[in-house]
Design brief:
The complex is a heterodimer of chains A (313) and B (533). Chain A is mainly alpha-helical. Chain A folds into two domains: 81 residues, no CATH class; 167 residues, MetI-like (MetI-like fold, Orthogonal Bundle), CATH 1.10.3720. Chain A has 13 helices and no strands. With 533 residues, chain B is an alpha+beta fold. Chain B starts with a helix and ends in a 5-residue tail after the last strand. Chain B has 16 helices and 25 strands. Helices cover 32% and strands 22% of the residues of chain B. Classes of the chains: A mainly alpha (313), B alpha+beta (533).
Chain lengths: 313, 533
């Protein structure tokens, strides 16, 4: 397994190089000037002032020169500076990455805690009111826009009931946990419906297989058949869905981050795209790419634990 | 008689004592302590050389001392207790307040090891901006700058090659020059903006990008701040911010409040709506050096074909202000009556002007042609509200007079790139409030010069006004420039909108921000009435 993991990590290098090159080229293809955008909201600059700042920041250099400079610096561990904030990009990313990870992991945990049992119970109680209620809930989850749901939660629990803070992050562990509730519940909604439905259908499929029928025929207890024999096999597609969505949530949490004023790397990337902050965009994509590769690797490893028949080639 | 005399003496002493009793601004606060949480939609690192951003300057102007602050539109002393200006307006002599100390208890100045702020720090701060070509030092000041020197520890002299009339203007002139310590700049280097150190009423505590900035009261400031702590909380989603404001999770929304919310908060007795004091214009620019925009009659037709006032009122709600020009009511250069004279709604006139220059519907399909071809004009705009609604209103107004307007809505970056490239069409424009704005927009190398807005007479009037220290004369020059802009360009105006910020009423002695955010000055010391919270 070590050899396999090592090989996968080595394969990351050309992949990451390709991603950064493509991102660097693509972001420069979009029309727009970072200095203009940076200043347009507040400062009133003449074209002469803008050109002076562009020159100083190296933005007037030819694109290959800018890219060579970026790569050289990157190999030395320097991601460059943000045009917008003029601070190191690595600082900008590292300040937000933990917050994004906390939000995403908490949401995934919420999804697993609620959606997984709900989907399984729904499958086991197929055709009953429990099944109908669970599927209605899942449908609501899939169809409700997260930003709207977030604002509603904020209105109810923040403004009217005054139970939870509407925005920001608490500083003490208790305050932090309280401030994490609304954004993580909102974010988990995106996956809740999907995972409930996948868990139900996956469980139903496994419950209909021959070996499950054989287990029942042999007189094995229902609970043992369902949870010892059927559930592990049903988990494979669920794991695939959750890991795939995990990567998506890392960058896709931007709306939630924006609504709840939660600092995150998704919001950083989107703001950087709109601000044409080239190095921030390229480096956040680089970080996303690395994380997606790592999550996929971890998922592959987890497969072997859930289903020992799966072995690395 | 003796008793009467004693009583009178006691009464006089009491009256004197009461009249001399320090107000909140003298450091005696009706209630001390508490945290003032300010909501803003975005925030940047706090280096005054690079932070070209209003809300970031709100923090900078509380961490760092400024030579002066802007209060009710006028400069008032800060680090400079007073200043003199030579008769020809080229030499400014700043008299520095004694006893102002750099914040201590940090990596640069350990607790109790700070030093006094001197004129040498002022000189260092000015040169730091001047020497850094990528700094946000205004071109007006940069072009006029000759030298800055400290004649003694408490006197700094700034010499210019000519008078700078907009030296006090918001977002231009010296309003950018926050005073920094050389030791701090050398210690933190490029990271100074992440660890700002100053001598203002509040000390920097922490900065979490996209989340918050925390400041605490500077106990060594020459006035004791009433507040313990100030937090700037970043809230990019404005509807969510409005909920947080009502819930009391933020005490003041320091960024632009949407018109609908302004209307709602005006009716809320727990809230106060504060006018930022610089009305912002919404207007159109166009490719004036290309046909048919190069014909003044066509520009005039575009101006008269739409009911700008009605459109602006509908889209801006209670923030709408009728008017035209770059400077709004209350700002130097504002010309009353400009809207009615140049931009009133008159579709009949618009149609006759287009007929006159041969932009007519010759094939009877309902759309006008120019030189035998269908005239389809792209209208460029950015994509955030309410900009696309202005475009829709123009498309509709065009259809009423047979002029086909094609919406071209993109993100701000793409929209700006089109303007820089001078792409043919109409552009929605917004902003540039204040006197400096008129100059930077319509002046030499102005923001829209790429579209062909080049007129030597306007340049000359604006250049003269920027160097004229006589307020009346300057006002006349600015008004002349504004009137000429309207007369020759007919830049179709919709009107202005006021920027309103909103505070909870338990925040006391607070008057909002004007580039500098004055929380603790000789006249104001903001405090929180916790009983009302």
């Amino acid at each position: 397994m070590k050899k396999y993991i090592f090989r996968r990590i080595i394969l990351m290098i050309p992949l990451v190089f390709g991603v950064t090159t493509a991102t660097f080229a693509l972001i420069h293809l979009i029309p727009g000037d970072p200095v203009e955008l940076m200043m347009s909201n507040a400062r009133q600059l003449t074209t002469e002032e803008i050109d002076r700042i562009r020159d100083k920041l190296g933005l007037n250099d030819p694109l290959p020169v800018q890219y060579a400079r970026y790569l050289t610096n990157l190999l030395q561990g320097d991601m460059g500076d943000s045009v917008r904030s003029r601070s190191p990009v690595s600082y900008e990313i590292m300040q937000r990455l933990p917050d994004t990870l906390i939000l995403t992991v908490t949401s995934i945990v919420l999804v697993l805690v609620f959606a997984l049992p709900l989907g399984i119970i729904s499958a086991l109680k197929r055709g009953t009111w429990i099944d109908t209620a669970a599927m209605t809930f899942a449908l609501l989850g899939v169809s409700m826009p997260a930003f709207w749901f977030g604002i509603m939660l904020m209105l109810i629990f923040g403004l009217h009931l005054d139970w939870l803070p509407t925005v920001g992050q608490g500083k003490t562990p208790i305050e932090f946990t309280r401030s994490l509730i609304l954004p993580s519940v909102t974010l988990s909604l995106i996956l809740l419906g999907l995972v409930t439905r996948v868990a139900r259908s996956s469980m139903l499929e496994v419950l209909g297989l021959d070996y499950v029928r054989t287990a029942h025929a042999k007189g094995m207890g229902v609970r043992r058949v369902n949870f010892r024999h059927a559930l592990p096999n049903a988990l494979i597609p669920i794991l695939t869905i959750v890991s795939g969505q995990f990567a998506g949530l890392l960058g896709g949490a931007v709306v939630i981050e924006k609504v709840f004023g939660w600092p995150g790397i998704g919001r950083l990337a989107v703001d950087a795209i709109f601000g044409r902050d080239y190095l921030v965009v390229t480096n956040t994509v680089l970080v996303f790419a690395i994380m997606v590769i790592l999550v996929n690797l971890v998922t592959d490893i987890l497969y072997t634990y859930i289903d020992p028949r799966i072995r690395f080639q | 008689m003796r008793l009467k005399g004693i009583l009178i003496s006691v009464f006089v002493v009491l009256v004197l004592a009461l009249s001399l009793a320090p107000a909140a601004a003298d450091g005696h606060c009706p209630q001390e302590g508490g945290t003032f949480t300010i909501g803003v939609d975005t925030f940047l690192p706090m280096d005054p050389n690079t932070a070209a951003h209003d809300w970031t300057f709100y923090a900078i102007t509380n961490i760092n001392s400024m030579l002066f602050r802007i209060e009710s539109g006028q400069p008032v002393g800060d680090l400079a207790e007073s200043w003199d200006i030579s008769e020809d307006g080229t030499v400014y002599t700043w008299h520095i307040r004694r006893g102002m100390m750099w914040h201590d208890g940090n990596e640069v100045f350990p607790e109790g090891e700070s030093r006094e702020v001197t004129a040498h720090d002022v000189v260092y701060s000015i040169y730091r901006q001047y020497d850094d070509e990528s700094s946000i030092m205004a071109a007006d000041l940069r072009n006029l700058f000759v030298s800055a020197e400290a004649t003694d520890d408490y006197t700094a002299v700034l010499t210019l090659s000519g008078p700078d009339a907009i030296i006090y203007d918001k977002a231009r002139g010296l309003t950018f020059t926050a005073i920094v310590a050389q030791e701090a700049i050398e210690h933190y280097g490029d990271d100074y903006g992440l660890n700002p150190l100053g001598s203002g009423p509040f000390e920097f505590v922490s900065y979490s990008p996209d989340e918050e900035v925390v400041l605490r009261a500077n106990e060594d400031y020459y006035i004791d701040p009433c507040l313990d702590e100030v937090i700037f909380r970043v809230m990019p989603d404005v509807p969510a911010a409005m909920i947080a404001l009502e819930a009391g999770d933020i005490d003041w929304w320091g960024a632009v409040t949407p018109g609908d919310d302004v209307g709602r908060f005006l009716d809320n007795e727990d809230m106060t709506v504060i006018n930022f004091g610089c009305p912002v214009a919404t207007r159109l620019y166009m490719s004036v050096d290309k046909a048919p925009f190069d014909d003044v009659r066509f520009r005039k037709a575009l101006s008269h074909m739409k009911d700008g006032e009605a459109i602006n009122a509908a889209l801006r709600g209670p923030t709408h202000v009728k008017g035209a020009g770059t400077a709004g009511p209350g700002v130097a250069g504002y010309v009353e009556g400009l809207y009615d004279e140049y931009h009133s709604y008159d579709p009949e006139l618009a149609m006759s002007l287009m007929d006159e220059i041969g932009i007519v519907d010759s094939d009877g399909d309902g759309w006008r042609e120019f030189e035998g071809e269908l005239l389809e004009i792209p209208m460029f705009s950015w994509n955030s509200d309410p900009a696309p609604d202005y475009v829709a209103a123009m498309v509709d107004a065009g259809a009423q007079v047979g002029l086909k307007i094609r919406p071209e809505i993109a993100d701000p970056g793409t929209n700006n790139a089109r303007r820089i490239d001078g792409e043919w069409g109409i552009y929605l424009g917004q902003g540039w409030c204040g006197e400096g704005g008129t100059n930077a927009l319509w002046g030499r190398n102005g923001w829209i010069s790429t579209l062909g807005y080049v007129d030597e007479e306007i340049f000359s009037l604006l250049d003269q006004s920027a160097q004229n220290l006589n307020e009346e004369e300057r006002e006349a020059q600015l008004q002349a420039a504004t009137t000429r802009i309207a007369a020759i360009y007919f830049e179709p105006a919709f009107g202005f909108f006021n920027i309103f910020t909103v505070k909870n009423n338990y925040v006391k002695d607070f008057f909002g921000g004007e580039w500098t955010l004055n929380l603790v000055t000789d006249d104001h010391n903001v405090w929180i009435n916790e009983d009302e919270r």
